Amino acid sequence: MPVWRIEDDCIAKAAKLTLNYSGPNPFSIYHKMRDIIMSVVLVKKEHIWERDFRWDDLGEPKGFYIRLYINKAMDAKTKILFELIFQGKQPSDKSKPGSLVMTISARIFTDYTLDTAFQQSLMYRGFLKIYHKIFYNDVRRRFLSDCGNFIDKIFTRVRTEFNLETK
């Protein structure tokens, strides 16, 4: 199915924000993130999934790497895909200090499907570009602003709740 896709990073200055934590039980931050995300981004559990979950059981402290995705549909055409990466070291004794580096990034996607031969014609694509420019671009810009606000809220809530440093 052909698609005309418009895609942007939600964070203007950099593609991601980074948080650092050193202290006891860094893995607990990951466990609490689903609740934080669901309350800030207003998504259900089925819109959050892990793409990677790696746990290094050989050494001490134990290393971990987790890639978490959140899919937020804004309307029928536009969605936001958040990516959170957790990388750190968790000691077996949770009271001993460990470390965590967490990165947050997001991209906004607007898709126009081009299923039929008419939709793939130059005339239809021209009308689609005019529609997007005149009517939908302002809506999409508001969604882009919402995306940045979601990231700021997640960033601020995690930073204050867990006393993390920014990088």
Provide a count of the helices: 2
Order of helices and strands: EEHEEEEHE
Give the beta-strand count: 7
Which band does the percent of strand residues land in? Answer: 35-45%
Oligomerization state: single chain
Query: How many angstroms does the end-to-end distance come to?
Result: 41 Å
- Helicity, in percent? 25-40%
* Unreliable parts: none
Shape: elongated
Q: State Rg.
A: 20 Å
Q: What is the SS-derived class? A: alpha+beta
Averaged pLDDT: 91
Count of discrete domains:
1
Please give the largest β-sheet. Answer: 7 strands, antiparallel
Brief summary of the model shown:
This protein has two helices and seven strands. It has 167 residues and is of the alpha+beta class.
Characterize the structure shown.
- The chain is an alpha+beta fold.
- The protein has one domain.
- It is 34% helix and 41% strand.
- The protein is built from 2 helices and 7 strands, in the order E-E-H-E-E-E-E-H-E.
- The chain has helices at residues 27-41, 122-162; strands at 3-9, 17-24, 48-56, 62-73, 78-90, 97-113, 165-166.
- Helix 1 crosses helix 2.
- The longest helix is centred in the C-terminal third of the chain and has 41 residues, at 122-162.
- The protein starts with a strand and ends with a strand.
- 20% of the residues are buried.
